[in-house]
Amino acid sequence: MNWMILPFKRFADFKGRSRRMEFWMFSLLNVIVWIVLGGMKMASGDTMAQLTAASATSPLSVYGVMFSGTTGILLALWSLAAFIPGIAVTVRRLHDRDMSGWWYLGFVIGSFIPLLNILISIGFLVLMFLEGTKGPNRFGPDPKDPTSSDVFA
Q1: Which residues contact 94 (CB under 8 A, 6 or more apart)?
Q2: Is residue 10, in this structure, part of any structural domain at all?
Q3: How many domains does the chain have?
Q4: Over the Cα atoms of the chain, what is R_g?
Q5: Is residue 90 scored above 90 in pLDDT?
Q6: Of 127, 68, 56, 121, nearest to 96 (Cα)?
Q7: How confident is the model at residue 3 (pLDDT cuts 50, 70, 90)?
Q8: Is the pTM of this model over 0.85?
């Protein structure tokens, strides 16, 4: 559980490195929260028919259906609360691979390119699964090195 909430403790820390465990446990926490809140939303009577019946002329009307009601407000609050820590932990994860955090912006922009977006998303996932560089790099000490006292300082 500590790995899941560590990105909230390091809320806007874009410096340093994060292990794969921290990144993937935070991702798992987000999936669990979205499944639970989405299940609560469906249990409260909202259906996929309401989402598909949203106005075709206004693509943003889907958000009105999705974020309406008490559960929708909880979904919106969770999304806002996890937005900055999610970016920060991703940037720190890229730092662990000895890559600049600006690569994340490149992946986000690249994901909007039709046909290439699938390849870019797969490449990003593979990159997040790869092990970090061993020993210290330009972004800080190795977070897996237990002898380093300034890993989480």
Answers
A1: 100, 101, 103, 104, 127
A2: no
A3: 1
A4: 18
A5: yes
A6: 127
A7: confident
A8: no
